[in-house]
Amino acid sequence: MTLIPEINIQNTVSIPRLGIGTWEMGGRQSPDRSEDEKFVHAIRFAVEHGIRHIDTAEMYGNGHAEELVSKAVEGFDRSKLIITTKVSGQNLAYKDLLESAQNSLKRLKTDYIDLYLLHWPNPDIPLHETMKAINELLATGQIRHFGLSNFTVELIKEVQQLTDAPIITNQLEYNLFTRNNGRITEDVESTILPYCMEHGISATAWRPVLKGATNILQQPLIQKIADKHKASPMQIALAWLLNKPLMLAIPKMTSEKHILENIAATKIELTQEEMELLNKLAF
Ligand SMILES: NC(=O)c1ccc[n+]([C@@H]2O[C@H](COP(=O)([O-])OP(=O)(O)OC[C@H]3O[C@@H](n4cnc5c(N)ncnc54)[C@H](OP(=O)(O)O)[C@@H]3O)[C@@H](O)[C@H]2O)c1
Fold first, then answer.
1. Domain coordinates of the chain in residue numbers?
2. Whether residue 149 has its Cβ less than 6 Å from ligand 1
3. 37-88 pLDDT tens trace
4. Which of 1, 90, 127, 157 is the most buried (most CB within 10 A)?
5. Residue nearest to atom 6 of ligand 1 (CA)
6. What is the CATH topology of the domain spanning 13-215+245-266?
């Protein structure tokens, strides 16, 4: 089993740089049980090979992805796992959020959620209401830590005023190809990441392997770096993320080949020069 490098976030929690994402495992907006076995196997295989951070959300398959996660981790030491789940933007009102958390706990068959994220902001619900519920869940221990997802700098600042608890992460669409042009949040690299880094808030890159679009990576520079490290271009794209400070990644991976390839990418150490060249890549 490979030990995946971890980062200590604000002296509060240590999270492995590579986790497994579960979007489209068990359906999109509604449950699809037709491939349950395949997804349970994928998550188990990942955990058996050293992955201990699993990312899911109440929205994925309308709760079914959380059920698959609980099934997949049966028999593993719960204390070794970091389970992240997310409350949907429409459930950020005080009572709704508390109810969402209870439902996630039930589906995950666990007494606590390691990291609970606000999946996306909702301008119609005052953040003080949302944070009142988060602060209560933190106090009872039902959530160990909390974080954000798709939050702008302005909104992160608002959250910081409403809690003494550290914001552990902000999930953002970020990869070698998508720097400031995310579908939900713009200016990630230019504005949001610098603010997060300055405040010790880790970034979790969602869509870190470009949805598997290897053709995007057909660039001489990437191929040259890949050849030097005896790696694939996709592994270099992932290593570029994982070599950045305070950066986590959660690719969704179902095939054993992808799981092993991505785990191996956590060992690739890019030189400063390679990082700078990749930083400057324009697609
Ligand atoms: N916070 C948010 O708003 C938000 C939004 C979207 C996603 N997310 C989270 O982020 C996770 C990842 O994002 P995503 O699923 O949208 O995109 P992704 O991880 O970039 O792409 C997943 C796709 O890439 C393939 N893949 C994985 N590793 C590969 C490799 N080494 N080489 C080639 N292809 C590879 C997978 O194939 P196989 O499955 O066949 O292995 C899958 O089809 C989600 O699962 C979810 O947990 C969060």
1. 13-215+245-266
2. yes
3. 999 999 999 999 999 999 999 999 999 999 999 999 999 999 999 999 999 9
4. 127
5. 206
6. TIM Barrel (3.20.20)
